Amino acid sequence: MAIPTRYRERLAARCDGEMVITVDKDHCLLIYPLPDWEELERKLVRLPSMHKVARRIVRIMVGYATEVDIDRSGRILVSRELRDFAGLDKQAVLIGQGNKFELWDEETWIGKRDAWLAEEDDGDLPADLESISF
Length: 134
Known about the structure:
- This protein is of the alpha+beta class.
- It contains six helices and five strands, in the order H-E-E-H-H-E-H-E-E-H-H.
């Protein structure tokens, strides 16, 4: 999988091409620059281990976390295990999400995207979103 050219220079400066890939409950892959992943991992491992949901999140995200390097051609190697988890067989879509990327199977992405766009908003925004103007 190739990282788009427009991101490579920033990633080289930010993390020297060192990235971490892990899984998401929506069955996509999350790709973080190593420093951002390390910060998130510190927060995750501090979650209460006796809390069932927290324990499940840590097991999945930290358990699947795999360090990778961007090669000279801007590519990263995604393991078979991670490709299988996300159903990456043919075409993939890389979605920028600020401090990370999401890597989706194209058909899955299109289906999820269309479903999300068709959802009716219930009007209840988290407090953090209420102050943002789109």
